[in-house]
Design brief:
Length: 175
């Protein structure tokens, strides 16, 4: 007896699953050979125009997942976070300050806050570093670089027939 006969006797006979795998492999090989004999032309799929059982970007998804994906793709994380802060302003600064000071806009990492009196504007200027730290803790470090505080009436209006050169305009003592 040679070694090959002995190995055949020791190896178990192929089960039904093994036979099925071998038949599948043989069928695939024959199909591959037929494809090459027919000219080897493979159908080119156009990108984005395929269908099948595997997931792709066109599949339906839950609403919140779709909104998160859209926010990430468009780079809206920061504006949406700041909008959330504007809505939660009383929680962040406290009800007393929120009753007198309102955030107006956020541009280039600066938050503009308008106060209803010059006293509250001065108070908020003193509290600004603490508020910046609190906002950055909530939004992420470096989100808010500075808080600009405006008193009542905002900045001076530099137009109109009754405006004198160099005047700062009406308003209370702030400015």
């Amino acid at each position: 007896m040679n070694d090959q006969d002995e190995q055949r006797r020791k190896a178990p006979e192929a089960s039904g699953v093994d036979l099925a795998r071998q038949a599948l492999a043989a069928a695939r090989e024959q199909a591959r050979a037929r494809g090459q004999a027919a000219g080897g032309r493979k159908r080119q799929q156009q990108p984005g125009l395929r269908s099948g059982a595997r997931a792709d970007g066109r599949d339906p998804m839950p609403l919140m997942a779709a909104l998160d994906r859209l926010r990430t793709e468009r780079g809206w994380e920061m504006p949406m976070a700041v909008a959330g802060v504007m809505e939660r302003w009383p929680e962040i600064v406290g009800p007393e300050i929120a009753a007198h000071c309102v955030p107006e806009r956020y541009e280039e990492r600066e938050l503009l806050v308008r106060c209803d009196s010059s006293a509250w504007a001065a108070q908020l200027k003193l509290l600004a570093p603490q508020l910046v730290a609190r906002l950055n803790a909530d939004l992420g470090q470096g989100t808010v670089r500075m808080i600009k505080v405006q008193g009542p009436g905002g900045g001076p209006k530099r137009y109109g027939a009754w405006r004198a050169p160099g005047s700062t305009g009406p308003g209370d003592t702030y400015g």
